[in-house]
Design a protein that fits this description.
The structure holds two protein chains of two kinds.
Chain A (H helix, E strand, L loop, with lengths): L1 H24 L10 H9 L4 E5 L8 E4 L1 E6 L3 E6 L13 E4 L2 E4 L5 E3 L4 H26 L8 H21 L3 H23 L10 H17 L3 H8 L9 H44 L5 H38 L27
Helix pairs in contact in A: 1-2, 1-8, 2-8, 3-4, 3-5, 4-5, 4-9, 5-9, 6-8, 6-9, 8-9
Chain B lengths: L6 H135 L4 H14 L4
Helix pairs in contact in B: 1-2
Classes of the chains: A mainly alpha, B mainly alpha.
């Protein structure tokens, strides 16, 4: 909750703050005014090229062009390298980029399926995950019946933790069916959180599309694995006065949606907030246009970066744990009215207190 | 754009994540989890077996001790028996030795007595023979000289020494 507030605060306040600063330093700055908000949003957002360092035409620079895949209604599919579209506004095959959004020059609707920076980063992380965990799996074949070795011994406690502390505790005896999904989202989020902290990397887990998909998959799994107790709790809430029960139905239905919604927003906000804070500290150097501010920026940036290492695993854990709890609530056999799991989510920004009234 | 999820990313994320989920489930999670389960059950089994072995050991130890106690009793019994038997044997040997000894003494006595009797008889015979001899000679000399006879007797007596 706090992190979300910080993120909102940053998003809302930074452009204003930056504009004031740029106004005062404008005279000193020979180039056009520095806009911290724009810079930060550019860094935490998606792009059609992978920019590492430098600017075109200003000495050494390195930018990886990415493939553009766009479907224009009536015109069909067009696939080409993104360097044709930079600098922004350049028109190629009737397409141009407007604030990293692909638009058709003639105003038709464009469906953008480009391999953007986030998609490229996603592919990279997927390759990494497959390489790492097939190596771990190979360790079990090689050291069959013996103590784990190397990378296998690093990941084994984490896998066992997810199995015993998250899946078994939150879901109960039926945990095995959901364990692959839980393990995959845990390691996917953790790895991508860490990858996102690398300089020049994409902010994948801090993208709403990604967190939305995870939340949506969790909602699907919860709904399709739910039993009659779960639905009876929603449509005929036990332990509530009879006249209140019809009123409880919409409240409970909102609860069904708000749970994954909170998952989506929490991960997005936490990760993006971390990035914004680090970038803000770095941006301070350019806002004050002074190297003197650099030590302070580095100290604070380093502190937040180390904190983000913790947040990376913590958010992966929280996401997995809450997913397991929601699934646990849906597959629970006997409805214990004092149950704490599968419902309570005090951290959720959109917590509907009525949805858990008993 | 930060709060506006793009359809492209959503599409790729869905496709790629589902593939990832499938691949990891098939090639990583299933073998890893089954290996873990197998190892855990084998450890549990080993622990249970160790416990059982401990119990068996204790039973075996108790059995051994019982056997040892029995053996000790048996040994004591055998020792006691052996002592009695040996004592009996010694006693028997002693009696027999005593008997034999006394029998031999009696025999020796008898033999000595016999020898003595024989010797005495011989002495008697010799004495008689000597007496007759002396008497004969005296009788022979008496005819000539009586002092000479005395001398003769003396000389004869000197000759004959009862040794």
């Amino acid at each position: 909750m706090k992190r979300l507030l910080v993120a909102l605060f940053c998003i809302l306040s930074l452009p204003v703050f930056a504009q004031e600063q740029t106004a005062s330093v404008h005279e000193a700055n020979k180039e056009e005014g520095f806009n911290a908000g724009e810079l930060i949003l550019h860094h935490v957002g998606d792009a059609h090229e992978w920019h590492f360092f430098g600017e075109e035409g200003e000495g050494p620079h390195f930018t990886l062009p990415l493939p553009i895949i766009a479907y224009q209604e009536g015109k069909g599919l067009s696939v080409f390298s993104s360097h044709h579209l930079y600098p922004e506004g350049t028109v190629h095959e009737g397409l141009k980029l407007e604030h990293e959004t692909l638009e058709a020059v003639d105003g038709y609707k464009v469906h953008d399926f480009s391999i953007t920076k986030n998609v490229a980063s996603l592919l990279l992380s997927v390759v990494l995950l497959i390489v790492v965990f097939t190596a771990v799996s190979k360790g079990y074949r090689k050291n069959h019946g013996r103590a784990p070795k190397g990378i296998q011994s690093f990941f084994e406690p984490i896998i066992i933790f997810v199995r015993d502390e998250v899946a078994k505790k939150a879901i109960g005896p039926k945990y095995e069916r959901y364990l692959p999904y839980l393990l995959t989202i845990f390691f996917f989020i953790w790895f991508n959180n860490l990858l996102g902290l690398l300089p020049g990397a994409a902010n994948l887990t801090g993208n709403l599309a990604v967190t939305f998909l995870f939340a949506f998959l969790t909602l699907l799994i919860t709904t399709f694995s739910s039993n009659k107790y779960y639905w009876s709790h929603i449509f005929w809430t036990p332990g509530v006065p009879l006249w209140l029960r019809p009123i409880m139905i919409p409240v409970e239905l909102i609860g069904v949606i708000s749970k994954p919604f909170s998952l989506m927003v929490r991960l997005f906000a936490n990760v993006t907030a971390g990035h914004i804070i680090i970038l803000s500290f770095i941006a301070l150097i350019f806002i004050f246009n002074s190297i003197g501010i650099a030590p302070l920026s580095i100290a604070f940036g380093l502190f937040i970066n180390v904190l983000e290492l913790l947040v990376a695993v913590l958010q992966a854990y929280i996401f997995t744990l809450l997913t397991a709890m929601y699934i646990g609530g849906a597959v629970e056999e006997h409805h214990d009215h004092d149950y704490g799991i599968g419902g309570d989510d005090a951290d959720a920004p959109l917590h509907v207190s009525g949805s858990h009234a008993h | 754009m930060l709060t506006n999820p793009s359809i492209g990313l959503l599409f790729w994320q869905l496709v790629i994540f589902l593939i990832l989920l499938f691949l990891l489930t098939k090639f990583a999670w299933k073998p890893i989890l089954s290996s873990l389960k197998e190892r855990e059950s084998s450890i549990e089994g080993a622990l249970r077996m160790a416990d059982q072995a401990k119990l068996e050991m204790q039973e075996l130890k108790a059995g051994n001790e019982k056997l040892l106690a029995e053996a000790r009793l048996e040994r004591d019994r055998i020792l006691k028996e052996a002592t009695t038997v040996s004592n009996q044997l010694i006693e028997q040997a002693k009696t027999r030795a005593t008997e034999e000894g006394s029998r031999m003494i009696v025999q020796a006595r008898e033999a000595i007595q016999n020898e003595k009797n024989a010797a005495l008889a011989e002495v008697k015979n010799t004495a008689a023979k000597l007496s007759i001899d002396i008497a004969e000679r005296i009788l022979r000399r008496e005819l000539a000289d009586s002092p000479a006879q005395q001398q003769l007797v003396d000389s004869y007596l000197k000759e004959v020494k009862l040794n």
